[in-house]
From TrEMBL:
It holds the Pfam family KH_1. Residues 44-57 have a biased composition (Low complexity). The keyword Ribosomal protein does not apply. One of its GO terms (cellular component) is cytoplasm. It comes from Sporisorium graminicola. This is K Homology domain-containing protein. Residues 775-802 form a coiled coil. It comes from the Eukaryota.
């Protein structure tokens, strides 16, 4: 590699040789002088060679060439640059000699043009920066911690810098993986950051949301931050007081505040706090309201056709940030038979309320809009009742109802599905009812409906036409005889309508009249083809149905060959064998029926003979199918649960998939209801079925009972006690949380019995209030049972000791009692183990008030609303008394220190009362220790302003006296205006106000500088009225000051001024040192 210095030396040597030989140097100047603009405005046509360039710059003797006259003064006049430089210009960027040999290898071989460095691969880097305030000990171990973290998390780079002035250390963490950076940051903060413990207050109703489903949110917070989060346990008593409506309209602003404690390093504690606050903010900004008070007859109008009105409400009132859910009208058309069936199992009820959820303010606006719409509909809507055949009601629901609502603004209300009523109600604006009636009739008559009356088909032949019609209907539906069509639908009557009306009518519905008539004829022929003599019904043991039917119905094939359809009832899923036993025989084979005699009597006799033969064969098959027997086991009732298993799974497994046996367990209810000898006792189990299966099942049940008995010896210790029925909800907890926790911790089974009267009839006769008790049964290991019993009884004692006290506290003082963020009331609740309820902001007066020592719930269980000035304390008697005493003490303190007086003063005195920069009012507050507030919005009211004074009576009196003194002084002031030439103002004021102060003192004013400055006001410079001087003060003093000012102004105005020319060098002598000579001359004059 040749250096620049070597190139220059070589060039100079060759230049000297060329001068001696009068030749051009063989090598161009490697560092030529710039004698022209290297970036000319126009492109260079052809770059000159290196030798030509050198010749143009230097002569042989080294002088400048004459071809560059513009450079004779050492400066080249470059033209304006209008474009980028020509980087290919040899004159602008001359070569530095021969280049180095290309490197050998793949980048330099085979004529490659690559001449750059090796390619650089950019890698994504995750980075985080944070700062910590470290103690001296933490700074000392900083390097150790950084090394430890870097060794633990490979690939992370840590940089740290400490600012000594602030004591803050800033960390910069870099790594390829963002997760590594986060883990390293958490490790550093845990090892170095200060350990702190802080509390964050949240509404009690949001406790579950902070925890999340199965602790999901809480787990995420602890995993991300490593902070220990302590959430206080839920109060079952408080939860039990919330009814359904209050849970749906929780006022988070007035909700009880509970503390959540965070423990960990300060950085991660702040992060965890932010995460919790984000969860709370998300919930408090949103609300869900259930409108249960709106009649469902208005739902179609609120929802609109296909939900159009609800969607428009979401858009207009909520800007798309709310959701309005209106249940469909069909949800209210309950099945009549299901509603009347007391034995039916309870089903989960649908939520039939309008639900509005989303942003709090927008939900409120949407609810108000819905309620206004409902109120308007109540006042303006009318109804029209008409009768339309029940079979046509199906054409007035769904899209048809939406079309009527969209075109006429009217709804169509139908009776329940199983209600035979033909009544149809049209509801809407009165002017639209005729249009809606026309539209409803058009929809109802839009299709062809044909009816086949099954009862009328054989009314003259059957002893019981309805019963026969039911058999025919069963044969058509179960036997699959109903014809199918792509354009026509066939509807069978519902069982409830058949039972209630005795009508068995099959409806054929379709738009094609010809197809409907054709199918009606087909169905009619099927019905007429089965007269009463072609049907036989008898009973067969349900356990034998499976045997007779056979695998895939093979047992019924012989009967079908003889022209008889055998219809068995559907199999039951119960284990006790309580299934239907009625079997129906129908002679329906076409070939067999065709071969019957033409004479009706002979035909009926032949049909009865065929059916009787099939019946005898089935009964023979019933006897041959299995040897049915029954066996009764005696198993203690307490072991029946083990035999049944969870949801009956154990017993189902014992019976097997084929269900050849029926097992019925005795119960105390059955025994008490049925006193006959055939009823099962409480400890009995009846097994019925084939002998072999009965033997197997009995053996299995005996084994399970023995194992359960053995387990019962170990884990079957039973303890019983009774509690007041009113305490049961508190023991169970919200959603069973309290009792579930106890079961999980101690592994015991806890059962609550039915409430029973403790006093009986005697107590009622004696006039005592009847009380009910509930029996609690604990089962499990003896030690665990005793511990569970101890805990429950302790809680019962606490509940029995619970009392309620109501205090009268003015509503305006509630904020002081609650404290900032509920701090004070939370401390009281924690200290005395009580619950303190303040009324909601929307509490109304006139409602019932809980009395001391009484329960705050009426007999119905609904929560009593508090009056605005009531505070309720609930808890143990001792704790309630302590909290009551402290609250009453605070009440007296607030009454003493929260006295309020309103003082009206003249508006003109406010400025003096306030003082410059509020100095006077601040002095009054400090000296009187009262709170003084000036109502500035009341300045124009009759020329007076209100001042509110709050504090003790003594403090109020002192503040009032001081304010009234200033106000009286201002009201008694006299104002004079004088006209004094502006050139005299400076003399009247004097140096630092000395002259005007002396004048005020001479007039009888105060000697205080600050006080004297308030009496005389001179205009400021550049004011419009520069010659007006204002005198303000008490009448006598203001008059005296005015006279003095007028006198002084007259003296100044009468002065004569002479001008004398004094040489500049003599002026200093006339003034004297410090103005002494000038003062002396002025005194003499």
């Amino acid at each position: 590699m040749v250096s620049a210095a070597d190139l220059m030396r070589q060039h100079q040597a060759q230049l000297a040789q060329a001068d001696a030989a009068s030749e051009l140097p063989p090598m161009a100047d490697p560092f030529p002088s710039l004698v022209q603009d290297p970036f000319p405005p126009a492109p260079v046509a052809a770059a000159p060679s290196a030798s030509a360039s050198a010749a143009a710059v230097l002569n042989g003797d080294g002088n400048h060439s004459n071809t560059a006259p513009s450079a004779t003064n050492g400066r080249a006049h470059a033209p304006a640059r209008s474009k980028q430089p020509d980087f290919s210009s040899e004159s602008a960027f001359p070569s530095l000699g021969a280049g180095a040999n290309p490197a050998k290898g793949q980048w330099g071989s085979k004529g490659s043009t690559w001449n750059g460095s090796a390619p650089v691969i950019q890698r994504a880097v995750a980075q985080q920066t944070f700062s910590l305030s470290l103690s001296h000990d933490s700074v000392a171990k900083l390097s150790t911690v950084m090394s430890k973290v870097q060794n633990k998390y490979r690939g992370v780079k840590i940089e740290a810098s400490t600012t000594r002035k602030t004591g803050t250390t800033t960390f910069v963490l870099k790594a390829a993986d963002d997760a590594v950076v986060k883990n390293a940051k958490r490790e550093i903060t845990v090892l170095l950051a200060k350990h702190v413990s802080t509390q964050i207050m949240i509404p009690a109703s949001l406790r579950a949301f902070v925890i999340g489903t199965k602790g999901k949110n809480l787990k995420a917070i602890t995993e991300q931050t490593g902070v220990k989060v302590h959430v206080p346990p839920r109060d079952p008593a408080a939860d039990a007081e919330l009814d359904a409506n209050q849970r749906n309209t929780i006022d988070y602003d007035n909700d009880e505040q509970i503390p959540i404690t965070l423990e960990g390093d300060e950085i991660n504690v702040k992060q965890a706090q932010a995460m919790i606050q984000a969860i709370v903010a998300e919930r408090t900004s949103k609300i869900t309201q259930r409108l249960t008070h709106i009649d469902h007859i208005f739902y179609p109008f609120i929802a609109g056709p296909k939900g159009a009105n609800a969607a428009q409400l979401e858009k207009q009132a909520g800007d798309g940030e709310i959701s309005v859910r209106v249940p469909p009208r069909a949800a209210f058309l309950h099945s009549k038979d299901a509603a009347d069936d007391d034995s039916a199992e309870p089903k989960r009820e649908r939520d039939l309320a309008i639900i509005v959820s989303g942003d709090r303010e927008k939900v409120t606006a949407a609810v108000a809009s819905i309620e206004a719409q409902v109120e308007d509909m109540k006042n303006s809507f009318r109804t029209l009742a008409i009768s339309i055949p029940k079979r046509q009601h199906r054409f007035l629901v769904g899209d048809a109802a939406n079309d009527i609502l969209a075109s006429t603004s009217c709804s169509v209300e139908l009776a329940a599905i199983d209600d035979p009523s033909d009544s149809v109600t049209i509801r809407g604006p009165q002017s639209q009812l005729p249009l809606a009636l026309t539209a409803a009739m058009e929809k109802a008559n839009a299709v062809r409906v044909e009816v086949v009356d099954v009862v009328a088909a054989h009314r003259s032949l059957a002893k019981d036409p309805v019963d026969h019609a039911k058999h025919v209907l069963r044969w058509l539906s179960v036997g699959g005889k109903i014809p199918r069509s792509s354009t026509v639908q066939i509807y069978l009557p519902r069982p409830a309508i058949v039972e209630s009306t005795g009508n068995v009518q099959i409806e054929i519905v379709g738009s094609d009249a010809a197809e409907v008539s054709k199918l009606r004829e087909t169905v009619q022929e099927l019905v007429k083809a089965v007269p009463p003599t072609f049907i036989e019904e008898f009973d067969v043991d349900p356990l034998l149905h499976r045997f007779i039917i056979g695998k895939k119905g093979q047992g019924l094939k012989p009967y079908e060959a003889r022209g008889v359809d055998v219809l068995f009832p559907p199999a039951s899923s119960s284990t006790d064998g309580d299934s239907r036993s009625d079997v129906l025989l129908v002679l329906a084979g076409s070939s067999v029926v065709a071969a019957l005699p033409a004479d009706r009597k002979a035909r009926d006799a032949k049909a009865s003979e065929i059916l009787e033969a099939v019946k005898q064969d089935i009964q023979k098959a019933q006897v041959a199918a299995a040897d049915i027997r029954s066996e009764t086991l005696t198993v203690p009732a307490k072991l029946h649960r083990a035999i049944l298993g969870p949801n009956g799974t154990t017993l189902n497994a014992v019976i097997g998939e084929d269900r050849l046996v029926a097992v019925k367990l005795g119960s105390s209810k059955a025994a008490s209801a049925d006193k006959s000898s055939t009823s099962l006792s409480e400890d009995s189990i009846l097994v019925r079925g084939p002998s072999s299966e009965v033997e197997r099942v009995v053996k299995e049940l005996t084994r399970i009972a023995a194992e359960a008995e053995q387990d019962n010896i170990i884990n079957g210790h039973v303890a019983e006690f009774s509690v007041d029925a009113n305490h049961v909800p508190h023991l169970v907890g919200r959603g069973g949380s309290a009792i579930t926790k106890l079961r999980e911790e101690l592994g015991v089974r806890i059962d609550f019995g039915e409430p029973s009267s403790a006093d009986g009839a005697d107590g009622v006769k004696k006039g005592r209030k009847p009380t009910s008790t509930t029996k609690v049964v604990l089962t499990g290991r003896k030690e665990n049972v005793e511990e569970a019993k101890k805990r429950l009884q302790t809680q019962v004692e606490r509940l029995a000791d619970e009392t309620t006290v109501t205090l009268k506290i003015p509503q305006e003082m509630h904020g002081s009692f609650i404290g900032q963020g509920g701090k004070y009331v939370t401390r009281l609740q924690d200290t005395y183990a009580v619950r303190i309820n303040f009324p909601n902001a929307n509490a109304q007066s006139g409602t019932s008030t809980p009395t001391e020592g009484g329960d705050d719930k009426p007999a119905g269980g609904a929560r009593v609303q508090q009056k605005p000035d009531e505070v309720i304390i609930k808890g143990g008697k001792k704790g309630v008394e302590g909290a009551k005493a402290e609250l009453l003490e605070l009440l007296e303190y607030e009454k003493e220190h929260n006295n309020v007086t309103v003082l009206n003063v003249s508006t003109k005195s406010i400025a003096r009362i306030m003082g410059k920069g509020g100095a006077t009012i601040k002095q009054i507050r400090d000296e009187s220790e009262a709170q003084v507030d000036v109502d500035r919005e009341d300045n124009e009211k009759n020329g007076t302003t209100s001042i509110k004074i709050r504090g003790t009576k003594k403090a109020i009196a002192a503040a009032k006296k001081a304010i009234e003194a200033i106000s009286s002084e201002v009201d008694a002031e006299q104002v004079y205006t004088l006209t004094i030439a502006p050139e005299h103002h400076g003399i009247l004021i004097g140096p630092q106000g000395s002259n005007i102060r002396d004048l005020i003192i001479k007039a009888g004013g105060p000697e205080d500088t600050k006080a004297s400055s308030q009496y005389v006001q001179f205009p400021r410079r550049n004011e419009k009225d520069a010659s007006t001087v204002t005198v303000r003060g008490p009448a006598s003093l203001a008059k005296a000051i005015r006279d003095e000012l007028e006198s002084a102004a007259q003296i100044l105005a009468s002065r004569v001024v002479y001008g004398v020319i004094v040489a500049p060098q003599a002026q200093r002598m006339l003034i004297g040192r410090g103005g002494s000579r000038q003062s002396e001359l002025q005194t003499q004059s």
